Input
Amino acid sequence: MKYLYWASTLLMCLIFAFSAQMYLRNTEMVQGFFTQLGYPSYLVLPLAALKILGIIAVLSRKSRMLTEWAYAGFFLDAVLAFVAHSVAQDGGHMIAAVAIVATAVSRLAYGQYYLGQEKT
Output
């Protein structure tokens, strides 16, 4: 379970870190994509910051509440990205689908491995 947790968590973190760095390095381009997908462009920078903070929360596991909120935010972000890219038919839905699966597997493995250890 430990290996499943770390493999899925690292994949999830890599996807969201790549996304955050794209948002920060190519803000105007990403804002254009957001507008095309029907989302407000002002969300780009706050989402980048939240993705970075979420990665820190998940990897540090210092606060159970922040970790849970990070997982919820990642899952919601990936689902919204999947729907938006599917509707736009631009091919971006596949990486969002991978992010959904990686986030779900990471959270389930976190619950089984790390939270299970707290009970014993």
Residues 2-115 form one domain. The CA atoms of residues 53 and 103 lie 15 Å apart.
